[in-house]
Amino acid sequence: MRIGFAGLATSHPFSDARTLARHGELVVWEEDAERLARFTAEHPGAVVAPTLGGLIDARPDGVVLTVPTPRVAAALAPVLDAGVPVFVNKPAAATREQLTALDALVAPAAHRVLSTSVLRFAPAFAGRAVDPAEVLAVRATVRHDVGLWATGYNPWQDTPGEGGGTMVTMGIHGVELLVALLGPGVRLSGAAGSVRRHAGLRSEDTGVMALRWDGGITGTVEILGVTAEESYTVAVHTREATETIVIEAGADPLKGLGYEGTVEAFLAMVGGAPSPVPWEQTRAILDVLVTAREAVPTA
Protein backbone atom coordinates (compact mmCIF):
# COMPACT_ATOMS: atom_id res chain seq x y z
CA MET A 1 0.00 0.00 0.00
CA ARG A 2 1.16 3.53 -0.78
CA ILE A 3 -0.23 6.53 1.12
CA GLY A 4 0.40 10.08 -0.01
CA PHE A 5 0.69 13.02 2.35
CA ALA A 6 -0.30 16.16 0.48
CA GLY A 7 0.84 18.94 2.77
CA LEU A 8 1.96 19.02 6.40
CA ALA A 9 0.33 22.28 7.46
CA THR A 10 -0.66 21.16 10.98
CA SER A 11 0.40 18.55 13.52
CA HIS A 12 -2.28 16.06 12.42
CA PRO A 13 -0.46 14.50 9.43
CA PHE A 14 2.57 13.81 11.61
CA SER A 15 0.32 11.88 14.02
CA ASP A 16 -1.41 10.09 11.14
CA ALA A 17 1.89 9.09 9.58
CA ARG A 18 3.02 7.32 12.75
CA THR A 19 0.07 4.98 12.37
CA LEU A 20 -0.02 4.73 8.57
CA ALA A 21 3.69 3.91 8.36
CA ARG A 22 2.82 0.51 9.80
CA HIS A 23 0.62 -0.21 6.79
CA GLY A 24 2.70 0.73 3.78
CA GLU A 25 4.98 3.13 1.93
CA LEU A 26 4.67 6.89 2.47
CA VAL A 27 4.96 9.56 -0.22
CA VAL A 28 5.04 13.19 0.88
CA TRP A 29 4.76 16.63 -0.70
CA GLU A 30 5.25 19.78 1.37
CA GLU A 31 6.52 23.21 0.34
CA ASP A 32 7.84 24.21 3.77
CA ALA A 33 11.38 22.88 4.08
CA GLU A 34 11.35 22.75 7.89
CA ARG A 35 8.13 20.72 8.07
CA LEU A 36 9.32 18.41 5.32
CA ALA A 37 12.65 17.85 7.10
CA ARG A 38 10.82 16.98 10.31
CA PHE A 39 8.65 14.46 8.46
CA THR A 40 11.53 12.76 6.64
CA ALA A 41 13.56 12.62 9.86
CA GLU A 42 10.70 10.64 11.42
CA HIS A 43 10.15 8.58 8.26
CA PRO A 44 13.48 8.32 6.42
CA GLY A 45 12.02 5.81 3.98
CA ALA A 46 9.35 8.21 2.73
CA VAL A 47 9.49 9.19 -0.93
CA VAL A 48 9.53 12.97 -1.42
CA ALA A 49 7.49 14.33 -4.33
CA PRO A 50 8.56 17.73 -5.70
CA THR A 51 4.99 18.87 -6.41
CA LEU A 52 1.41 17.88 -5.70
CA GLY A 53 1.23 16.63 -9.28
CA GLY A 54 4.31 14.52 -8.63
CA LEU A 55 2.67 13.00 -5.58
CA ILE A 56 -0.39 12.09 -7.65
CA ASP A 57 1.86 10.68 -10.37
CA ALA A 58 3.30 8.33 -7.72
CA ARG A 59 -0.15 6.66 -7.77
CA PRO A 60 -0.94 6.54 -4.06
CA ASP A 61 -3.76 4.27 -2.93
CA GLY A 62 -5.00 7.02 -0.64
CA VAL A 63 -4.13 10.63 0.20
CA VAL A 64 -4.08 12.53 3.50
CA LEU A 65 -4.58 16.18 2.52
CA THR A 66 -3.41 18.87 4.96
CA VAL A 67 -2.92 22.31 3.44
CA PRO A 68 -4.00 25.71 4.83
CA THR A 69 -7.79 25.91 4.70
CA PRO A 70 -7.97 28.53 1.93
CA ARG A 71 -6.06 26.12 -0.35
CA VAL A 72 -8.08 22.97 0.33
CA ALA A 73 -10.38 23.12 -2.71
CA ALA A 74 -7.55 23.80 -5.17
CA ALA A 75 -5.44 20.95 -3.77
CA LEU A 76 -8.36 18.53 -3.48
CA ALA A 77 -9.49 18.91 -7.10
CA PRO A 78 -6.58 17.02 -8.75
CA VAL A 79 -6.70 14.30 -6.09
CA LEU A 80 -10.38 13.69 -6.80
CA ASP A 81 -9.71 13.81 -10.55
CA ALA A 82 -7.24 10.97 -10.01
CA GLY A 83 -9.97 8.87 -8.37
CA VAL A 84 -8.06 8.47 -5.10
CA PRO A 85 -9.77 8.21 -1.68
CA VAL A 86 -8.79 11.22 0.41
CA PHE A 87 -8.83 12.21 4.06
CA VAL A 88 -9.04 16.01 4.33
CA ASN A 89 -7.80 17.07 7.74
CA LYS A 90 -10.22 19.36 9.54
CA PRO A 91 -11.57 21.92 9.08
CA ALA A 92 -12.08 21.54 5.34
CA ALA A 93 -13.67 25.00 5.10
CA ALA A 94 -13.83 28.05 7.37
CA THR A 95 -15.63 30.69 5.26
CA ARG A 96 -18.76 30.73 3.13
CA GLU A 97 -16.70 31.08 -0.05
CA GLN A 98 -14.50 28.12 0.89
CA LEU A 99 -17.52 25.97 1.74
CA THR A 100 -19.31 26.79 -1.51
CA ALA A 101 -16.24 25.82 -3.55
CA LEU A 102 -15.71 22.66 -1.53
CA ASP A 103 -19.34 21.57 -1.72
CA ALA A 104 -19.43 21.79 -5.52
CA LEU A 105 -16.18 19.85 -5.74
CA VAL A 106 -17.00 17.07 -3.29
CA ALA A 107 -20.66 16.40 -4.16
CA PRO A 108 -19.95 14.16 -7.19
CA ALA A 109 -17.30 12.15 -5.32
CA ALA A 110 -18.51 12.32 -1.71
CA HIS A 111 -18.06 8.57 -1.19
CA ARG A 112 -14.29 9.06 -1.62
CA VAL A 113 -13.93 12.02 0.77
CA LEU A 114 -13.53 11.85 4.54
CA SER A 115 -13.20 15.01 6.62
CA THR A 116 -13.81 14.80 10.34
CA SER A 117 -12.65 15.54 13.83
CA VAL A 118 -10.75 12.47 15.00
CA LEU A 119 -12.82 12.51 18.19
CA ARG A 120 -15.70 10.88 16.32
CA PHE A 121 -13.58 7.70 16.28
CA ALA A 122 -12.28 7.91 19.87
CA PRO A 123 -12.95 4.67 21.81
CA ALA A 124 -14.90 6.55 24.48
CA PHE A 125 -17.31 7.91 21.85
CA ALA A 126 -17.34 5.64 18.80
CA GLY A 127 -20.49 3.57 18.56
CA ARG A 128 -22.45 5.74 21.00
CA ALA A 129 -26.08 6.24 20.11
CA VAL A 130 -29.03 8.10 21.61
CA ASP A 131 -32.77 8.06 21.04
CA PRO A 132 -33.58 11.62 19.88
CA ALA A 133 -37.13 11.22 21.17
CA GLU A 134 -35.73 10.95 24.71
CA VAL A 135 -33.23 13.82 24.45
CA LEU A 136 -34.05 17.25 25.88
CA ALA A 137 -30.75 18.98 25.14
CA VAL A 138 -27.06 18.30 24.58
CA ARG A 139 -23.84 20.07 25.46
CA ALA A 140 -20.27 19.64 24.20
CA THR A 141 -17.33 21.19 26.02
CA VAL A 142 -14.03 21.52 24.18
CA ARG A 143 -10.91 22.13 26.26
CA HIS A 144 -7.88 22.70 24.00
CA ASP A 145 -5.38 25.48 24.62
CA VAL A 146 -4.71 27.90 21.73
CA GLY A 147 -1.92 29.88 23.38
CA LEU A 148 0.57 28.73 20.75
CA TRP A 149 -1.20 30.90 18.19
CA ALA A 150 -0.49 33.98 20.31
CA THR A 151 3.22 33.35 19.64
CA GLY A 152 2.64 33.65 15.89
CA TYR A 153 2.51 29.92 15.12
CA ASN A 154 0.42 29.10 12.03
CA PRO A 155 -1.19 32.55 11.85
CA TRP A 156 -3.55 31.41 9.08
CA GLN A 157 -5.31 29.10 11.57
CA ASP A 158 -5.95 32.00 13.96
CA THR A 159 -7.18 34.35 11.21
CA PRO A 160 -11.00 34.32 11.00
CA GLY A 161 -11.14 34.82 7.23
CA GLU A 162 -8.54 32.13 6.50
CA GLY A 163 -8.50 29.16 8.89
CA GLY A 164 -11.46 30.27 11.00
CA GLY A 165 -9.74 30.91 14.32
CA THR A 166 -10.68 29.19 17.56
CA MET A 167 -14.42 29.27 16.84
CA VAL A 168 -13.94 27.02 13.79
CA THR A 169 -10.73 25.09 14.40
CA MET A 170 -11.58 24.08 17.97
CA GLY A 171 -15.35 24.43 17.72
CA ILE A 172 -15.47 21.68 15.10
CA HIS A 173 -14.72 19.09 17.80
CA GLY A 174 -17.88 19.90 19.72
CA VAL A 175 -20.17 20.31 16.71
CA GLU A 176 -18.82 17.07 15.19
CA LEU A 177 -19.64 15.03 18.28
CA LEU A 178 -23.16 16.41 18.58
CA VAL A 179 -23.95 15.90 14.87
CA ALA A 180 -22.58 12.36 15.11
CA LEU A 181 -25.16 11.72 17.84
CA LEU A 182 -28.16 13.64 16.51
CA GLY A 183 -27.70 13.95 12.75
CA PRO A 184 -27.23 16.78 10.25
CA GLY A 185 -30.60 18.53 10.64
CA VAL A 186 -29.10 21.34 12.70
CA ARG A 187 -28.66 25.08 12.46
CA LEU A 188 -26.87 27.76 14.47
CA SER A 189 -29.06 29.92 16.71
CA GLY A 190 -26.30 32.17 18.04
CA ALA A 191 -22.62 32.48 18.88
CA ALA A 192 -20.25 34.60 20.92
CA GLY A 193 -16.53 34.73 21.55
CA SER A 194 -13.93 36.70 23.48
CA VAL A 195 -10.27 36.85 24.44
CA ARG A 196 -9.92 36.02 28.13
CA ARG A 197 -6.21 35.26 28.52
CA HIS A 198 -4.20 34.89 25.30
CA ALA A 199 -3.62 38.52 24.28
CA GLY A 200 -2.46 38.94 20.70
CA LEU A 201 -4.78 36.40 19.12
CA ARG A 202 -6.46 37.26 15.83
CA SER A 203 -9.57 35.34 16.85
CA GLU A 204 -10.84 34.34 20.31
CA ASP A 205 -9.71 32.00 23.06
CA THR A 206 -13.20 31.40 24.48
CA GLY A 207 -16.44 30.85 22.61
CA VAL A 208 -19.94 29.43 22.72
CA MET A 209 -22.49 28.29 20.13
CA ALA A 210 -26.22 27.66 20.50
CA LEU A 211 -27.67 25.00 18.17
CA ARG A 212 -31.14 23.70 17.36
CA TRP A 213 -32.05 20.47 15.57
CA ASP A 214 -35.09 20.19 13.32
CA GLY A 215 -36.88 18.02 15.88
CA GLY A 216 -36.55 20.69 18.58
CA ILE A 217 -33.49 19.47 20.50
CA THR A 218 -31.27 22.33 21.62
CA GLY A 219 -27.52 22.13 21.97
CA THR A 220 -24.59 24.12 23.30
CA VAL A 221 -20.93 23.99 22.31
CA GLU A 222 -18.47 25.55 24.76
CA ILE A 223 -14.94 26.26 23.52
CA LEU A 224 -12.28 26.79 26.17
CA GLY A 225 -8.99 27.72 24.52
CA VAL A 226 -7.36 28.55 27.85
CA THR A 227 -6.74 25.28 29.64
CA ALA A 228 -3.96 23.28 31.25
CA GLU A 229 -5.39 19.95 30.08
CA GLU A 230 -6.95 18.77 26.84
CA SER A 231 -10.30 17.03 27.11
CA TYR A 232 -13.69 16.84 25.42
CA THR A 233 -17.00 16.23 27.15
CA VAL A 234 -20.49 15.54 25.81
CA ALA A 235 -23.53 15.71 28.10
CA VAL A 236 -26.85 14.27 26.92
CA HIS A 237 -29.76 15.51 29.02
CA THR A 238 -32.95 13.45 29.27
CA ARG A 239 -35.87 13.64 31.68
CA GLU A 240 -34.40 10.86 33.81
CA ALA A 241 -30.72 11.78 33.93
CA THR A 242 -27.65 13.27 32.25
CA GLU A 243 -25.29 10.90 30.47
CA THR A 244 -21.75 12.24 30.26
CA ILE A 245 -19.10 11.08 27.81
CA VAL A 246 -15.51 12.17 28.42
CA ILE A 247 -12.78 11.87 25.80
CA GLU A 248 -9.19 12.23 27.01
CA ALA A 249 -5.74 11.41 25.66
CA GLY A 250 -4.97 8.80 28.31
CA ALA A 251 -1.77 6.77 28.19
CA ASP A 252 -1.91 6.49 24.39
CA PRO A 253 -3.13 9.78 22.83
CA LEU A 254 -3.21 8.37 19.29
CA LYS A 255 -5.72 5.80 20.46
CA GLY A 256 -7.51 7.77 23.18
CA LEU A 257 -8.23 10.83 21.03
CA GLY A 258 -9.30 8.82 18.00
CA TYR A 259 -6.34 9.17 15.64
CA GLU A 260 -5.95 5.41 15.25
CA GLY A 261 -9.67 4.92 14.77
CA THR A 262 -9.74 7.61 12.08
CA VAL A 263 -6.84 5.98 10.26
CA GLU A 264 -8.63 2.62 10.39
CA ALA A 265 -11.72 4.26 8.87
CA PHE A 266 -9.57 5.87 6.17
CA LEU A 267 -7.85 2.57 5.38
CA ALA A 268 -11.27 0.97 4.93
CA MET A 269 -11.97 3.67 2.32
CA VAL A 270 -8.67 2.88 0.64
CA GLY A 271 -9.88 -0.71 0.53
CA GLY A 272 -13.03 0.30 -1.31
CA ALA A 273 -15.54 1.17 1.41
CA PRO A 274 -17.49 4.44 1.14
CA SER A 275 -16.64 7.34 3.42
CA PRO A 276 -17.68 6.46 6.99
CA VAL A 277 -18.91 10.04 7.51
CA PRO A 278 -21.61 11.03 5.01
CA TRP A 279 -20.92 14.33 3.27
CA GLU A 280 -24.36 15.48 4.45
CA GLN A 281 -23.05 15.42 8.01
CA THR A 282 -19.70 17.02 7.20
CA ARG A 283 -21.40 19.79 5.25
CA ALA A 284 -23.86 20.46 8.09
CA ILE A 285 -20.98 20.70 10.58
CA LEU A 286 -19.06 23.11 8.35
CA ASP A 287 -22.16 25.21 7.73
CA VAL A 288 -22.71 25.64 11.49
CA LEU A 289 -19.06 26.64 11.95
CA VAL A 290 -19.04 29.06 9.02
CA THR A 291 -22.27 30.67 10.27
CA ALA A 292 -20.77 31.00 13.75
CA ARG A 293 -17.67 32.60 12.27
CA GLU A 294 -19.83 35.07 10.36
CA ALA A 295 -21.68 35.90 13.59
CA VAL A 296 -18.43 36.55 15.46
CA PRO A 297 -16.07 38.06 12.85
CA THR A 298 -13.54 39.27 15.43
CA ALA A 299 -12.77 38.59 19.09
Automatic annotation (TrEMBL):
GFO/IDH/MocA-like oxidoreductase domain: residues covered: 134-238
Top-level division of the source organism's lineage: Bacteria
Xref: Pfam families: GFO_IDH_MocA_C3
Xref: PANTHER family: CONSERVED EXPRESSED OXIDOREDUCTASE (EUROFUNG), OXIDOREDUCTASE
Name the UniProt record assigns to this protein: Gfo/Idh/MocA family oxidoreductase
